[in-house]
Design brief:
Layout lengths: L1 H12 L7 H11 L5 H10 L5 H13 L5 H11 L5 H11 L10 H9 L4 H13 L6 H11 L4 H13 L5 H11 L3 H11 L10 H7 L6 H13 L7 H9 L6 H14 L4 H9 L7 H14 L5 H12 L6 H14 L5 H9 L6 H14 L4 H8 L8 H13 L4 H4 L8 H10 L9 H13 L3 H14 L1
Helix pairs in contact: 1-2, 1-3, 2-4, 3-4, 4-5, 4-6, 5-6, 6-8, 7-8, 8-10, 9-10, 10-12, 11-12, 12-14, 14-16, 15-16, 15-17, 16-18, 17-18, 18-20, 19-20, 19-21, 20-22, 21-22, 22-24, 24-26, 26-28, 27-28
Length: 472
């Protein structure tokens, strides 16, 4: 402790431009030092330094360090409020917000003086200090903050909105509600939405209904922010009105709003699963492929396992009865993988139909999904997949070889791709032979030995060696 104090004092007494003020803060914070009067005297002396950066750092040190004498810190910061340097004065206004000094009679008049400063930074920090120290609850500073709300310069109104949102003045929420209806500038309305968030916890404030109404605003920023506010509010979970309003945003014209709705809705479902499901499914059959894709994606996130209503809706997507793009089809596959029960005839038929899709990614995903949902219909899935071992795209041939292995296809089918022209397909074919039912199978072992001796690709030979060791 003594060595650290000596080092700090030495730094503070040095003539370097950047003093030990920042070091003082970091070291004392790390070692939780309760510093002596000599250290505060040294910091106070640095506040008389000719360099404004030094004086500014000393102000920060007084506010952030464990205080030996809180009155000493407040006195030093109040002196800094009258400094000739704008930087030091701004540092002092900022520092005063760090101190629990609301009861000090010297603080409020100094902050009120900063409220009428020519510096926008000083005025902003003064408002923050008043709200943080709970001084904005008094009528005089409250009146000054309210007067700022009518300032013609938007840059001046936003700090006032933020300050009003941080206090517990009885008229604060009414002021915010009025601004929400009257403000024409988008940045002010966004600040109002942010400041109004704490009132969502109060069932009597009407803020929940106000947030829902913001979902109809013309600005997509406001719609996104409102969705995020509802998602963070516990009162919104399971609320039927909220769920239906957010579900409507799945068909929003802006992709950011749809994205926010997809993320929020699963967290808002709560005990209202049936309502949420009905709200989403009623919007799946729209003409816009992008909005349908958002609806399908959100079903993937909250649908319950075994829900046949959801499964049938996804089957319609796969069968082409619902207008969707390839991304929506991929979401439908993911939903079926989570919700559908294996072995259902209609589900398998819908997936098989997508094996002929014009999009390669969809065909690839359909082939990969079939083994997972085949159940007792493995033979039907095998017969559907076998033709795709001759597909023109190597990726499709490779995934088909792997899918057939999971379906326990006959050995002659499993070995068909061992001589494929593409090495990735041969690797998939060799790896697919590592099955328990092929252990000690002479035909398989001979084929693997042949790959080891004849194949020109190192990775194929390595896969063949691993498969041979596992089966022999």
């Amino acid at each position: 402790f003594r060595s650290h104090r000596a080092m700090i004092l030495e730094c503070l007494s040095s003539a370097r431009q950047l003093p030990g003020a920042g070091l003082l803060w970091r070291v004392s914070k790390e070692f939780a030092l309760q510093l002596s009067p000599s250290v505060f005297d040294a910091v106070s002396n640095r506040m008389e330094h000719k360099e404004e950066r030094v004086r500014g750092r000393a102000v920060y040190a007084l506010a952030r360090l464990p205080s030996y004498d809180r009155g000493t810190s407040v006195s030093g910061i109040i002196r800094a409020l009258c400094d000739e340097s704008e930087l030091v004065r701004s540092s002092a206004v900022c520092a005063i917000t760090k101190l629990s000094c609301a009861t000090d009679p010297r603080v409020k008049p100094c902050i009120m003086q900063c409220l009428v400063s020519d510096s926008w930074t000083n005025r902003t920090w003064a408002l923050k200090a008043l709200s943080n120290l709970a001084l904005l609850d008094d009528e005089e500073p409250w009146a000054v903050a309210i007067s700022w709300l009518g300032d013609p310069v938007v840059k001046n109104r936003i700090p006032a909105v933020e300050a009003v949102g941080r206090v517990h003045h009885p008229r604060a929420h009414a002021v915010l509600r009025r601004l929400d209806h009257e403000a024409e500038d988008l940045s002010v309305r966004l600040a109002v939405a942010e400041a109004s968030f704490p009132y969502l916890k109060d069932p009597n404030s009407g803020e929940l209904e106000a947030t829902i109404r913001r979902l109809d605003r013309s600005s997509f920023y406001e719609r996104c922010k409102s969705i995020v506010s509802l998602m963070k509010s516990r009162r919104a979970v399971g609320n039927v009105q909220v769920i239906r309003a957010v579900a409507t945003c799945l068909h929003d014209s802006d992709v950011s709003v749809r994205r926010a709705a997809v993320e929020a809705l699963p967290k808002l479902v709560g005990a209202s699963y049936a309502v949420a499901l009905d709200a989403v499914l009623s919007k799946v059959r729209a003409e816009n492929t992008h909005t349908n894709s958002a609806c399908i994606e959100v079903l993937q996130l909250f649908a319950k396992v075994g829900d046949r209503v959801v499964v049938e809706a996804m089957e319609d997507c796969c069968n082409g009865n619902v207008k969707t793009d390839h991304q929506g089809c991929m979401h439908a596959f993911a939903t079926l993988a989570k919700v559908a029960e294996p072995g259902h005839r209609k589900t398998i038929a819908a997936i098989v139909k997508r094996l002929n899709d014009e999009n390669q990614s969809v065909r690839h995903a359909a082939a990969a999904l079939l083994p997972r949902l085949a159940g007792k219909r493995q033979e039907k899935c095998i017969s559907a997949l076998v033709p795709y071992l001759e597909d023109l795209w190597p990726g499709m041939r490779a995934v088909t070889a792997g899918a057939l292995a999971h379906l326990h296809c006959p050995v002659d089918i499993a070995m068909r791709c061992l001589r494929d022209d593409d090495s990735t397909v041969r690797i998939a074919a060799v790896s697919s032979l590592r099955r328990r039912d092929f252990k000690n199978n002479r035909q398989v072992l001979e084929a693997l030995v042949q790959r080891l001796s004849e194949d020109s690709d190192d990775e194929v030979r390595e896969a063949a060696e691993l498969a041979h060791d596992a089966l022999s």
